[in-house]
Design goal:
249 residues; alpha/beta; 7-stranded parallel β-sheet; two-stranded antiparallel ribbon; 32% helix; globular
Length: 249
């Protein structure tokens, strides 16, 4: 059974913002012509059961398209959520991508890295079987006001968490950012991808758990909760951009 490649020896020495690219990261990237970053509904929102078949079909079409564009030489990145079919979220999407033979790179903080892989590259829990042909990156856990920063931006507007390391490690290979719904972090990443002039693709996906008013307030869209709570803040932002004449697919 193929072992998960732990890039930059980061399980033993989690990456910090001042890290330098190691040779194994360069060698890994050299095998591919492209990377696609995926975001979407996380553990809080989750994906509504009624959407799963449609989402799987969308993912199948995405893989076929990118395989044709890059002759199968691409990999996918995401923030390292565990795959739990009982609580479907973005990891369900990456699991489907992996089922097509696409290598998956999970970028996760050291607080939870032990659930992901062991030092010999074995999968620590079956919820990370999607990494068996891919790789893992572990970074030093970051926090702000007592809250772990899993990704997106901090209060000063700096990229943090998985977002920071995905772009610092693989930014030269990322050709597209794809979002399947999502909350505050997913919204920040979507906007950041557009700021990098990447192709950005949004798929509207109903959430199992409606987004709270608190999240809409944090994203400066307090009036959007009633209409978009079932789909999340990325959907609200994206829909409002379309209404004023901006298309982002």
């Amino acid at each position: 059974m193929a072992a998960v490649q732990i890039l930059a020896n980061s399980l033993r020495n989690p990456l910090t913002p001042d890290f330098q690219l190691s040779q194994d990261v360069l060698d890994f990237k050299a095998k591919f012509s492209a990377c696609v970053n995926f975001t979407g509904h996380g553990a809080n929102n989750q994906i509504h059961e009624s959407e799963l078949d449609r989402v799987n079909s969308l993912v199948d079409d995405i893989v076929l398209r990118i395989n044709a564009e890059h002759k199968g030489k691409w990999f996918a990145t995401y923030g390292g959520d565990p795959h739990n079919p009982e609580k479907p979220d973005i990891a369900v999407i990456l699991h489907r991508v992996a089922s097509h033979g696409v290598p998956i790179v999970a970028v996760q903080c050291d607080k939870y890295a032990g659930y992901m892989v062991t030092e010999d590259g074995s999968v620590a829990d079956k919820s990370y079987d999607l990494l068996k042909t891919g790789a893992a990156v572990v970074y030093k856990t970051e926090s702000e006001n007592g809250n772990i920063l899993y990704g997106g931006k901090d209060n000063k507007g700096n990229a943090v968490g998985a977002t920071r390391y995905i772009y610092k490690l693989f930014g030269d290979k990322i050709i597209e950012h794809i979002s399947f719904g999502g909350g505050k972090v997913a919204l920040q990443e979507f906007i950041m991808a557009q700021g990098r002039s990447l192709k950005t693709t949004y798929h509207r996906v109903k959430a199992r758990n409606p987004t709270s008013q608190e999240v809409f307030l944090a994203c400066e869209m307090p009036q959007a909760e009633k209409e978009y709570a079932d789909y999340g803040v990325v959907d609200a932002w994206y829909s409002q951009k379309q209404q004023i004449g901006h298309g982002y697919i």
